[in-house]
Amino acid sequence: MKKPELLAPAGSFEKAKIAFLYGADAVYCGTASLSLRSRAEVGDNDLRDTIIYAHEIGKKVYAAINIYAFDESYEEIKKQARMLNELKVDGIILSDGGVLEIVKEEAPDVDIHISTQSNVVSSHAASFWRNNGAKRVILARELNKEQIKDIVENTDKELETEMFVHGALCFGYSGRCFLSDFLASRSANLGDCAQSCRWAYNLYAEEKNNPRKSYAN
């Protein structure tokens, strides 16, 4: 049986080193402007240092460019993709079809990993990404074990599958939520979620004799 790879997030170069120290085979990280970790202490130099260090000790780094990108972000995406190609990063995690096309052009030597933000919930979706150049799909966090098993068994055996075993699970559909942007002007799709789905709310229902009766906290 193929040994699973243990992958951990790294919000800084120091955190990457600690993850490796405690047994991670690989880390994923990204800059605040292009990944969904908008508060991560990772700039281009930190990304570079992390990749160089990891390769020196026989570990891997996957760089996240997994925002849903507006046009004004693409020059920075092109620049970073070229840098990652030169550094021989082990994979680029992305969720946006436009970003995928840029990565294929600017980082042709780097494996493409499809982010959990893309909500891969079927073998058909996994096969779509495989046909468009993906080496790995990171499955949606909403799936149960049987659904994961079905996807693995019904896709190209060369397509790697990754899944979360620990971490936050959105109450809204992962990666497609605009609640935070609407209520707090912080876009979940650009890595700045205020986790509005976890706030405390009062629910009111309109009734003929009591138009503001509270039903829940």
Structural class assignment: alpha/beta
Order of helices and strands: EHEHEHEHEHEHEHEE
Head-to-tail CA distance between termini: 49 Å
User: Largest sheet, described in full?
Assistant: 7 strands, parallel
CATH architecture classification name of the largest domain: Alpha-Beta Barrel
* Overall radius of gyration: 19 Å
The CATH superfamily of the largest domain bears the name: Phosphoenolpyruvate-binding domains
Residues in helix, %: 25-40%
- Count of discrete domains: 2
Described by the principal axes of the CA atoms, the overall outline is globular
Strand tally is: 9
Give me the CATH fold name of the largest domain. Answer: TIM Barrel
CATH class of the largest domain: Alpha Beta
Which ranges are low-confidence, i.e. pLDDT below 50, for 5 or more consecutive residues? none
Kindly report the spatial arrangement of strands forming the biggest sheet.
Answer: 1-2-3-4-5-6-7
Number of helices: 7
- Percent of residues in β-strands: 15-25%
Q: What's the pLDDT, averaged over the residues? A: 89
How would you characterize the overall build of this protein?
With 217 residues, this protein is of the alpha/beta class. The protein folds into two domains: 166 residues, Phosphoenolpyruvate-binding domains (TIM Barrel), CATH 3.20.20; 41 residues, no CATH class. The protein is 32% helix and 16% strand. The strands form two sheets. A seven-stranded parallel beta sheet has the order 1-2-3-4-5-6-7, covered by helices on one side. A two-stranded antiparallel sheet has the order 8-9. Strand 2, helix 2 and strand 3 form a beta-alpha-beta unit. It is globular. The model has no long low-confidence stretch (mean pLDDT 89).
